[in-house]
Amino acid sequence: MRIAAIDLGTNTFNLLVADADAKNFREIYRDKKAVKLGQHGITQHKIPDDAIVRGISAIKEYI
Questions:
Q1: Which domain holds residue 49?
Q2: Contact 6, 59 (CB under 8 A)
Q3: CA 8/CA 14 separation, integer angstroms
Q4: Tens digits of residue pLDDT in 11-62
Q5: Phi, psi of 33 (to 5 degrees)
Q6: How many CA atoms lie within 13 A of 55 on its CB side?
Q7: How far is CA 31 from CA 9, 13, 22, 46, 51, in A?
Q8: What is the CATH number of the domain that holds 17?
Q9: How many domains does the chain have?
Q10: Against a cut of 0.85, is the pTM above it?
């Protein structure tokens, strides 16, 4: 079975695609995108509009 996981971090989005069975998995693809969601806003507990655009763009590339 092919599986995928996306880790949505504050600065980086990570994608891992693997073939898996009940006991093992084999990595097929891995990617990392610097999205910097916290840039210029994390201390105010806000995600700036340009950071949202970067995040959405990264997700669109993954799907």
A1: 2-62
A2: yes
A3: 7
A4: 999 999 999 999 999 999 999 999 998 887 777 888 888 999 999 999 999 9
A5: -125, 130
A6: 17
A7: 13, 8, 24, 26, 19
A8: 3.30.420.40
A9: 1
A10: no
